[in-house]
Amino acid sequence: MSISSSSSTDRAAKGRRDKKARGEARHRIGDVTRLTGLSADTLRYYEKIKLLRPVNRAASGVRVYDERDLSRLGFIQRAKAMNFSLDEIARLLEMREDPQHARDEVRELTHRKLEQVESHMEELDTLRKELNLLINLCRGAEAGCPIIDDLDSKSKRKKPKRS
Amino acid sequence: MSISSSSSTDRAAKGRRDKKARGEARHRIGDVTRLTGLSADTLRYYEKIKLLRPVNRAASGVRVYDERDLSRLGFIQRAKAMNFSLDEIARLLEMREDPQHARDEVRELTHRKLEQVESHMEELDTLRKELNLLINLCRGAEAGCPIIDDLDSKSKRKKPKRS
DNA sequence: TTAGCTGCTGGAGTCGACTCCAGGTCAAGC
DNA sequence: GCTTGACCTGGAGTCGACTCCAGCAGCTAA
């Protein structure tokens, strides 16, 4: 994956790196996929749904991402890692442009997100305990399947052995 | 919602309840939605994807659910609450029919599910801490939005104030 | 008899976040 | 000039788990 003899891909990229060395720092979509781990399709998709402003184009029509685009993408990725939806991220990005206005709304959004996360964690914790219980039940069993029995017996009655 | 003068719906259901009182316990889809909380569409959908065996029909063609169907639905709901996917539940149900064979596979499945749940919880916990941090940062701030700043400043550099 | 309700079917639509595709252009290197 | 690879576009498809719809039939109380 990372070690390979120079392909024409690499060679094509080299020309652009030379430009960059002259201080221009203009990235084509392939560079950005390498830098961010996002796929080209995803990058175009983000632009389509206006998570990114229309990206600049070279004369040939290819997208040229600048540092601001990269910083926006970094923001998006961090917000995604924080479980914000693309819709919410779009709002965060808007507010990011206008920080004076943003504070209350952003705090609101973050607060709600935190509550969601916390209640989700509680559910998962209950679930974890139950699954653990099932597995322990199973460990001691000789035959049959206590997990299935348990999933059964949680219904109304204490299970009359099997009919 | 729960208190209402007897509608024709109620009256229609009463006839069937009388039958049930004579020991037949045959539920139409509407009864089952009331008993389980699942929508009629969902019940039909479960049958379509074979999570339920083809449900018996009355002469008129309407579905008639018996106690076994209800018990299967209970099983499905509990397994869903345990975060099993419908696909996994289908497998659990198969094994439920043949418990001698089931044990190892079911334990396997449950074990994997537990691991998923645990790693998801870890992620969420990290997330929770970070969100908390953001909100606390925000609390102390006078203006601007520390949350956005933080999401920004986690990029490469420590943020040169604002350009 | 009729209104009103419940139920039936096959099929399409929904959600979010992509992912894939065909058919094309463009640039670099041999 | 040709090959190769990167990139472009619009549009369709994917996943899971439903949800909605039109158009119809059957049952029951008044």
Describe this structure in words.
Two copies of one chain form a homodimer. With 163 residues, chain A is mainly alpha-helical. Chain A has two domains: 10-84, Orthogonal Bundle (Multidrug-efflux Transporter Regulator, Chain: A, Domain 2), CATH 1.10.1660.10; 98-155. Chain A contains seven helices and no strands. In chain A, α5 packs antiparallel against α6. The model of chain A is unreliable at 1-6 and 155-163 (pLDDT under 50). At the A-B interface, α4, α5, α6 and α7 of A face α4, α5, α6 and α7 of B. The structure holds a DNA duplex (30 and 30 nucleotides).
What's this, in brief?
Chain A has 163 residues and is mostly helical. Chain A is 66% helix and 0% strand.
List keywords for this structure.
homodimer, 163 residues, mainly alpha, Multidrug-efflux Transporter Regulator, Chain: A, Domain 2, disordered N terminus, DNA-binding
The biggest sheet of chain A, with number of strands, parallel, antiparallel or mixed sense and barrel status, is: none
Cα shape of chain A:
elongated
Poorly predicted parts of chain A: 1-6, 155-163
Q: CATH topology of the largest domain in chain A, what is it called? A: Multidrug-efflux Transporter Regulator, Chain: A, Domain 2
Helical amount of chain A: 55-70%
Topology overview:
The structure is a homodimer of 163-residue chains.
Chain A: H1 8-21, H2 29-36, H3 40-48, H4 67-81, H5 86-97, H6 99-140, H7 146-153
The first copy, chain A, binds a DNA duplex (30 and 30 nucleotides) through α1 and α3.
